[in-house]
From TrEMBL:
It comes from the Bacteria. Belongs to the leucine-binding protein family. It comes from Micromonospora phaseoli. Gene3D superfamilies: 3.40.50.2300. Residues 49-397 form the Leucine-binding protein domain. It holds the Pfam family Peripla_BP_6. InterPro entries: BCAA_transport, Leu-bd, Peripla_BP_I. Keywords: Signal. Transmembrane segments: none annotated. PANTHER family: BLR7848 PROTEIN, LEUCINE-SPECIFIC-BINDING PROTEIN. This is Branched-chain amino acid transport system substrate-binding protein.
Length: 405
């Protein structure tokens, strides 16, 4: 049983942010209520157009498909009344493109969307490599882009990311929570098995420092190759270090493949995952024996929303979960990132009274919002807005993620 993980007060920090979010959103909601009397349905011919480049096939499909499903549900809910922007109520139109997990294709899609006058913002990409390829086009065309990918380099350096935002948690916050968990479990030495690429690079930097702070030894760092057949060799190297546990820093489906390879190589100790592992694929039947009893750090949406049930966001989260299950049979804890990106963009449009790209950017970077996955606090000097206190610790018991703290 995991011991409680100590840290700064969640209630105090979250309460302050929630109050700020309430103040910010209250003004928007107040204006919207006033408009309801005059405009009760979307204004014909007026739209808020949001492009989405997603990994619907290829190596990132395990995460990208969940985003497409969540977007469809959240957009349909928004369009029941439309989005109040100025004196109009706009219909949200999503233009979803499959980038096939190919960075070059993702960049081309972002360029094509950005050159169109009728596209107001862009969201998407669940892989760090596709996100990085989109950044250049979004910046050049001054198109606000909200990324769903893991990787700290997506949102920094700020001088080159004026139009770029990220909704996933920072590697440092996830690593700090994982290291605290490892220490609380009494482990003295662990191996870090990190995927090759930008997300793995962020994990190696963050976990190295976090383990040192937690006074846990890092026995070895092993990189997990991008190829599906490379997991076995990496797992053998990890097991050879004879550590107490292994931290797997990889997105699905590579995280599940790594867990299977580790068990087949003889690892009987504990397994820990970063947030990128949380997808339906990780808990599929071919992975269950390997991941049973393992731990993950992930935003609170995985174990149910922490937001007030009576709030608009709480109602939207309940609708997303129930409709997602109705349509697809099981709910993905990763799904709310896309819904939150959509929420952030539409809230920016409401607050700005405009769909102008520059004004959307200005209101994105001054937004505090309680989303479905967690709390976001964006500022002009911080475009990676997920608050660290939105993270929770989970364990796989009986084939499902259960929240421990």
């Amino acid at each position: 049983m995991a011991k409680p993980v100590t840290g700064p007060s969640v209630i105090t920090r979250r309460g302050v942010l929630a109050a700020a979010a309430g103040t910010l959103l209250l003004s928007a909601c107040g204006r919207e209520d006033e408009r309801d009397a005059a405009v009760t349905r979307p204004t014909p011919g007026h739209e808020l157009v949001i492009g989405a480049t997603l990994e619907l096939s290829g190596s990132g499909a395990a995460l990208g498909v969940a985003q497409e499903r969540a977007l469809a549900i959240s957009a349909a809910t928004l369009n029941e009344k439309g989005v109040a922007v100025g004196n109009l109520r706009r219909q949200v139109r999503l233009e979803v493109l499959d980038n096939r997990s190919d960075p070059r294709l993702a960049a081309r899609q972002a360029t094509e969307l950005g050159r169109r006058d009728d596209v107001h913002a862009l969201l998407g990409t669940t892989l760090a490599e596709t996100a990085m390829s989109v950044i250049g086009a979004a910046q050049k065309l001054r198109l606000p882009f909200v990324s769903l990918a893991f990787g700290d380099s997506i949102a920094v350096p700020l001088a080159q990311r004026a139009f770029i935002y990220k909704v996933t948690p920072d590697a440092g916050d996830v690593a700090r929570r994982l290291a605290q968990l490892v220490a609380a479990e009494g482990l003295r030495r662990v191996v870090l098995l990190a995927e090759t690429g930008l997300h793995g690079d962020s994990g190696v930097r963050a976990m190295t420092g976090a383990l040192r702070t937690a006074e846990v030894g890092l026995a070895r760092t092993v990189r997990l190759p991008a190829s599906e057949g490379g997991a076995a060799g990496a797992a053998e190297q990890a097991v050879a270090a004879q550590a107490d546990g292994v931290v797997v820093w990889a997105t699905a489906p590579r995280s599940g493949a790594a867990a299977r390879a580790l068990r087949e190589a003889g690892h009987r100790g504990e397994l820990f995952f970063d947030a990128g592992a949380v997808a339906e694929e990780t808990l599929e039947s071919h992975n269950l024996r390997a991941v049973e009893g393992s731990y993950a750090v992930h935003p609170s949406s995985l174990g149910g929303s922490t937001i007030a049930n009576s709030s608009a966001t709480g109602r939207a989260h309940r609708n997303l979960v129930s409709e997602y299950i109705r349509r697809h049979g099981a709910y993905s804890g990763f799904a709310p990132y896309a819904s939150d990106a959509l929420l952030l963009i539409t809230t920016a449009a409401r607050l700005a009274d405009s769909v102008d790209r520059g004004r959307l950017r200005a209101y994105l970077q001054n937004q505090v919002t309680d989303g479905m996955a967690g709390m976001y606090s964006f500022t002009p000097i911080r475009h990676s807005g997920m608050e660290r206190h939105s993270l929770g610790v989970y364990r796989v018991d009986g084939g499902v993620w259960n929240r421990l703290s």
